Fold this protein.
Amino acid sequence: MIVSSRILAFGYRAVAALVIMIGIARVSGLWTANPSWSSFLYYTVLSNVLCLGWMVASAIVTLRDAQREGWSGASTPSARGAAAVMEAITVTMLIYLFVLTPALFTQPGAYQPFTLTDNLVHIITPILVIVDWLLFVPKGLLRRYDPLLWALIPYAYLVFAFGCSALGGRFAGGTRAPYPFMNVATNGVGGVALWIVGLTVALIAVGYAFFGLDRLLARTGREPRPAG
Protein backbone atom coordinates (compact mmCIF):
# COMPACT_ATOMS: atom_id res chain seq x y z
CA MET A 1 0.00 0.00 0.00
CA ILE A 2 1.00 3.62 -0.49
CA VAL A 3 0.03 6.84 1.25
CA SER A 4 -2.48 8.43 -1.13
CA SER A 5 -2.02 11.99 0.09
CA ARG A 6 -0.31 14.51 -2.12
CA ILE A 7 -0.20 16.95 0.80
CA LEU A 8 2.00 14.58 2.79
CA ALA A 9 4.02 13.59 -0.29
CA PHE A 10 4.73 17.20 -1.26
CA GLY A 11 5.67 18.18 2.29
CA TYR A 12 7.93 15.17 2.71
CA ARG A 13 9.65 15.70 -0.62
CA ALA A 14 10.20 19.41 0.00
CA VAL A 15 11.79 18.74 3.39
CA ALA A 16 13.82 15.81 2.00
CA ALA A 17 15.16 18.00 -0.83
CA LEU A 18 16.24 20.61 1.71
CA VAL A 19 18.03 18.03 3.87
CA ILE A 20 19.78 16.50 0.85
CA MET A 21 20.86 19.95 -0.34
CA ILE A 22 22.33 20.71 3.09
CA GLY A 23 24.31 17.47 2.97
CA ILE A 24 25.71 18.28 -0.46
CA ALA A 25 26.61 21.81 0.63
CA ARG A 26 28.36 20.57 3.77
CA VAL A 27 30.40 17.81 2.10
CA SER A 28 31.52 20.12 -0.72
CA GLY A 29 31.98 23.26 1.37
CA LEU A 30 29.62 25.29 -0.80
CA TRP A 31 28.91 27.59 2.13
CA THR A 32 32.59 28.37 2.64
CA ALA A 33 34.94 30.78 0.91
CA ASN A 34 36.79 27.88 -0.76
CA PRO A 35 34.40 25.16 -1.94
CA SER A 36 35.86 21.72 -2.63
CA TRP A 37 34.76 21.29 -6.22
CA SER A 38 36.65 18.00 -6.42
CA SER A 39 33.94 16.55 -4.17
CA PHE A 40 31.72 16.40 -7.24
CA LEU A 41 34.08 13.83 -8.77
CA TYR A 42 32.89 11.24 -6.23
CA TYR A 43 30.00 8.83 -6.61
CA THR A 44 28.75 9.77 -3.15
CA VAL A 45 28.20 13.42 -4.03
CA LEU A 46 26.99 12.74 -7.57
CA SER A 47 24.43 10.22 -6.31
CA ASN A 48 23.25 12.79 -3.75
CA VAL A 49 22.90 15.36 -6.54
CA LEU A 50 20.85 12.80 -8.47
CA CYS A 51 18.60 12.33 -5.43
CA LEU A 52 18.23 16.08 -4.98
CA GLY A 53 17.16 16.51 -8.59
CA TRP A 54 14.75 13.58 -8.31
CA MET A 55 13.20 14.81 -5.07
CA VAL A 56 12.69 18.30 -6.50
CA ALA A 57 11.15 16.83 -9.66
CA SER A 58 8.91 14.58 -7.55
CA ALA A 59 7.72 17.54 -5.47
CA ILE A 60 6.95 19.53 -8.62
CA VAL A 61 5.01 16.64 -10.19
CA THR A 62 3.11 16.13 -6.93
CA LEU A 63 2.09 19.80 -6.85
CA ARG A 64 1.10 19.71 -10.52
CA ASP A 65 -1.03 16.59 -10.08
CA ALA A 66 -2.66 18.08 -6.98
CA GLN A 67 -3.72 21.14 -8.95
CA ARG A 68 -5.14 18.96 -11.72
CA GLU A 69 -6.62 16.03 -9.81
CA GLY A 70 -6.81 17.08 -6.17
CA TRP A 71 -4.73 16.35 -3.10
CA SER A 72 -5.73 12.69 -2.83
CA GLY A 73 -3.69 10.20 -4.85
CA ALA A 74 -0.13 9.25 -5.67
CA SER A 75 2.34 11.15 -7.83
CA THR A 76 5.79 10.40 -9.19
CA PRO A 77 7.67 11.35 -12.37
CA SER A 78 8.21 7.60 -12.93
CA ALA A 79 7.82 4.58 -10.66
CA ARG A 80 10.68 2.84 -12.46
CA GLY A 81 12.83 5.97 -12.29
CA ALA A 82 12.16 6.29 -8.56
CA ALA A 83 13.39 2.73 -8.01
CA ALA A 84 16.51 3.37 -10.11
CA VAL A 85 17.40 6.44 -8.04
CA MET A 86 16.74 4.49 -4.84
CA GLU A 87 19.09 1.72 -5.98
CA ALA A 88 21.78 4.27 -6.94
CA ILE A 89 21.80 5.90 -3.50
CA THR A 90 21.48 2.55 -1.69
CA VAL A 91 24.79 1.62 -3.32
CA THR A 92 26.29 4.73 -1.70
CA MET A 93 25.07 3.70 1.75
CA LEU A 94 26.06 0.03 1.53
CA ILE A 95 29.57 0.66 0.18
CA TYR A 96 30.14 3.27 2.88
CA LEU A 97 28.95 1.00 5.69
CA PHE A 98 30.45 -2.30 4.57
CA VAL A 99 33.46 -1.41 2.41
CA LEU A 100 34.82 2.07 3.11
CA THR A 101 34.17 2.61 6.82
CA PRO A 102 35.75 -0.66 8.02
CA ALA A 103 38.85 0.18 5.99
CA LEU A 104 38.98 3.73 7.34
CA PHE A 105 39.18 2.46 10.90
CA THR A 106 42.50 0.80 10.04
CA GLN A 107 44.00 3.74 8.14
CA PRO A 108 46.05 6.56 9.66
CA GLY A 109 44.92 10.15 9.45
CA ALA A 110 42.52 12.60 11.07
CA TYR A 111 39.42 11.52 9.18
CA GLN A 112 36.54 10.34 11.36
CA PRO A 113 33.56 8.44 9.91
CA PHE A 114 29.97 8.95 11.02
CA THR A 115 30.23 12.71 11.40
CA LEU A 116 27.08 14.73 10.73
CA THR A 117 28.22 15.50 7.20
CA ASP A 118 29.10 11.87 6.47
CA ASN A 119 25.81 10.69 7.90
CA LEU A 120 23.86 13.16 5.80
CA VAL A 121 25.28 12.08 2.44
CA HIS A 122 25.87 8.38 3.16
CA ILE A 123 22.99 7.36 5.41
CA ILE A 124 20.28 10.02 5.80
CA THR A 125 19.83 10.73 2.09
CA PRO A 126 19.48 7.01 1.25
CA ILE A 127 16.93 6.55 4.04
CA LEU A 128 14.94 9.58 2.86
CA VAL A 129 14.81 8.23 -0.70
CA ILE A 130 13.92 4.69 0.39
CA VAL A 131 11.11 5.97 2.64
CA ASP A 132 9.78 8.12 -0.20
CA TRP A 133 9.65 5.04 -2.44
CA LEU A 134 7.97 2.96 0.23
CA LEU A 135 5.31 5.54 1.10
CA PHE A 136 4.53 7.54 -2.01
CA VAL A 137 5.52 5.65 -5.18
CA PRO A 138 2.97 3.29 -6.82
CA LYS A 139 4.04 -0.36 -6.69
CA GLY A 140 3.83 -3.19 -9.20
CA LEU A 141 5.18 -1.22 -12.14
CA LEU A 142 8.75 -2.53 -12.23
CA ARG A 143 10.00 -4.94 -14.90
CA ARG A 144 11.98 -8.09 -14.20
CA TYR A 145 15.04 -6.72 -15.98
CA ASP A 146 15.01 -3.33 -14.21
CA PRO A 147 17.58 -4.31 -11.53
CA LEU A 148 20.03 -5.06 -14.34
CA LEU A 149 19.42 -1.63 -15.85
CA TRP A 150 19.92 0.05 -12.47
CA ALA A 151 23.49 -1.28 -12.44
CA LEU A 152 24.24 1.01 -15.39
CA ILE A 153 24.27 4.04 -13.06
CA PRO A 154 27.28 2.96 -10.93
CA TYR A 155 28.91 1.51 -14.06
CA ALA A 156 28.61 4.90 -15.74
CA TYR A 157 30.46 6.34 -12.76
CA LEU A 158 33.21 3.71 -13.10
CA VAL A 159 33.70 4.74 -16.74
CA PHE A 160 33.80 8.39 -15.69
CA ALA A 161 36.25 7.85 -12.81
CA PHE A 162 38.66 5.60 -14.71
CA GLY A 163 38.47 7.92 -17.72
CA CYS A 164 39.19 10.94 -15.55
CA SER A 165 42.19 9.19 -14.02
CA ALA A 166 43.51 8.05 -17.41
CA LEU A 167 43.35 11.63 -18.71
CA GLY A 168 45.45 12.87 -15.80
CA GLY A 169 42.66 13.93 -13.46
CA ARG A 170 43.21 13.68 -9.73
CA PHE A 171 40.87 13.21 -6.82
CA ALA A 172 41.14 14.48 -3.24
CA GLY A 173 44.69 14.39 -1.93
CA GLY A 174 46.07 14.01 -5.44
CA THR A 175 45.06 10.33 -5.65
CA ARG A 176 44.38 8.69 -8.98
CA ALA A 177 41.42 6.66 -7.69
CA PRO A 178 38.38 8.01 -5.86
CA TYR A 179 37.97 4.90 -3.69
CA PRO A 180 40.55 2.38 -2.37
CA PHE A 181 38.98 -0.62 -4.13
CA MET A 182 39.40 1.19 -7.47
CA ASN A 183 43.14 1.79 -6.99
CA VAL A 184 44.96 -0.24 -9.62
CA ALA A 185 48.37 0.74 -8.23
CA THR A 186 47.71 -1.02 -4.91
CA ASN A 187 45.21 -3.72 -5.90
CA GLY A 188 46.36 -4.52 -9.43
CA VAL A 189 44.05 -4.84 -12.41
CA GLY A 190 42.89 -8.27 -11.27
CA GLY A 191 42.18 -7.07 -7.75
CA VAL A 192 40.13 -4.12 -8.95
CA ALA A 193 38.25 -6.39 -11.36
CA LEU A 194 37.41 -8.79 -8.53
CA TRP A 195 36.12 -5.92 -6.42
CA ILE A 196 33.94 -4.70 -9.28
CA VAL A 197 32.55 -8.17 -9.95
CA GLY A 198 31.79 -8.73 -6.28
CA LEU A 199 30.11 -5.35 -5.88
CA THR A 200 28.14 -5.91 -9.07
CA VAL A 201 26.74 -9.18 -7.75
CA ALA A 202 25.86 -7.48 -4.48
CA LEU A 203 24.12 -4.49 -6.05
CA ILE A 204 22.10 -6.66 -8.44
CA ALA A 205 21.06 -8.82 -5.48
CA VAL A 206 19.92 -5.68 -3.65
CA GLY A 207 18.10 -4.58 -6.79
CA TYR A 208 16.17 -7.83 -6.99
CA ALA A 209 15.38 -7.56 -3.28
CA PHE A 210 13.76 -4.19 -4.05
CA PHE A 211 11.99 -5.77 -7.03
CA GLY A 212 10.63 -8.56 -4.84
CA LEU A 213 9.47 -6.05 -2.25
CA ASP A 214 7.76 -4.05 -4.98
CA ARG A 215 5.81 -7.13 -6.09
CA LEU A 216 4.93 -8.02 -2.50
CA LEU A 217 3.67 -4.52 -1.75
CA ALA A 218 1.73 -4.49 -5.02
CA ARG A 219 -0.11 -7.67 -4.01
CA THR A 220 -0.69 -6.37 -0.48
CA GLY A 221 -2.07 -3.10 -1.80
CA ARG A 222 -3.93 -4.79 -4.65
CA GLU A 223 -2.28 -2.56 -7.20
CA PRO A 224 -2.07 -3.57 -10.87
CA ARG A 225 1.02 -5.55 -11.81
CA PRO A 226 2.54 -5.66 -15.31
CA ALA A 227 2.80 -8.95 -17.15
CA GLY A 228 6.56 -8.57 -17.67
About this structure: Confidence is low (pLDDT under 50) at residues 223-228. The two ends are 21 Å apart (CA to CA).
